[in-house]
Amino acid sequence: MIRWRRGEVVRVRREWPGAVELDVTTEDGEARALAYPALVGRPEPGDVVLLNTTALAMGLGTGGYAMVVAVPDRLPQDPQGPGHLVKARYTPLQATVLGADEQDSPFHEVLRDADSVDGMPVIVADLHSALPAILCGLYGANPPGSGKSAGGPEGRERGKPVRVAYVMLDGGALPAWFSMSCARLRETGWLCGVVTAGQAFGGDVEAVTPHTGLLAARHVLEADVAIVTQGPGNLGSGTRWGFSGVSAGEAVNAAAVLGGRPVAALRVSEGDLRERHIGVSHHSLTAYGRVALAPAQVAVPVLPGDFGRRVAEQSRPLAARHELVEVPVDGLHEALRGSPVRLSTMGRGLEEDLAYFLASAAAGRHAASLLS
User: Fold this and answer.
1) Whether the predicted model's global pTM rises above the 0.70 cut
2) In contact, 328 and 132? CB cutoff 8 Å
3) 3 state SS of 84
4) Residues 52-104 pLDDT 10s
5) Which of 35, 96, 129, 251 is the most core-located residue (most Cβ within 10 A)?
């Protein structure tokens, strides 16, 4: 279940909002560790730390850290302020946060009777790594800071920037702090905020469910577009139903029932070695074809050659429930090169699995067209 180790902090490697990466020594040798200061305080060189080394011992990619559970000789002060929403519930590190929809929240009155996201485009994807690629397609040649809007003609005339919120589901990492991409995208203005829904926590706004997460994106963060994916660390078992990305289908349902316009991003790969993920992944076919009961617009990237024809053919069964929208990908490679964060999926970079990132960017491009 858990591999416990006691360690000592050797050095701070780097840090980003919400997280500190460390080098620690344990009885097994030196290891890379991660601490969330909001939970355990900020470890310093020389501190003794209690570690959970399970993911490290298993050799997990995304989550392959020794996780700092406590700094037992220097515990943080008790938290101050409101907040009655408990996340990571009934685990040793359950945390109390202020939920946007709870009674003590300044947004409670706004969300108490909120029942619609007012036609907001909601882009849904399987993997967290799709997030920056979707944004590249959404902004195109007009990213934040360019002085131009990514939206339709009316938005460009007024010079009003498009506000994009990220709603993080709890199928992968629970702390939004784990994601360096989220921190950087927030810092550069590519995201107006992060909403953590369900058991996920650490966003700019906390929500009880994906539904209130979408409502908060619209009515608290005043987003024009929301992007919904699980956090880093997709869980899969190689079976039809045993993967955390089924939440993509559930997110389509949530967006539709709240009066949004769901846009489904396909998980496409030309570089994955697993046959079930070549072309259109079985994750997308199951999540959108079986789990999503409400119709969405499925962005089908127009990719070249035989591989493009394969993607188009594999997508056709989704037309029984959804509207398939062919999206040209010309210019998207250049847009992806302009990402403010490193693009990587399952260890593959932009050039190693270009089709994956183009498919995600195509969904962003289509959503931008809905802002006209």
Assistant:
1) yes
2) no
3) coil
4) 999 888 876 656 799 999 999 999 999 887 899 999 999 999 999 999 999 99
5) 251
What is the pLDDT at residue 155? Answer: 38
Quote the CA–CA distance of 117 and 171 in Å, as a whole number.
23
CATH among 3.40.50.2000, 2.40.50.140, 3.30.830.10, 3.30.930.10 for 4-70: 2.40.50.140
| 3-state SS string for 170-181 | CCCCCEHHHCHH
Per-residue pLDDT band at 309 (split at 50, 70, 90): very high
Which of 2.60.40, 3.40.50, 3.40.630, 1.10.3470 would CATH assign to domain 108-369?
A: 3.40.50
DSSP assignment, residue 106? T
CA distances from 74 to 45, 50, 96 (A): 12, 12, 21
pLDDT, tens digit, 9 for 90 and up, residues 180-213? 999 999 999 999 999 999 999 999 999 999 999 9
Query: Quick one: pLDDT at residue 187?
Result: 96
| Domain ranges across the chain | 4-70, 108-369
Give 290's Cβ-side CA count (13 Å radius): 11
Residue among 130, 63, 124, 65 nearest 345 (CA): 130
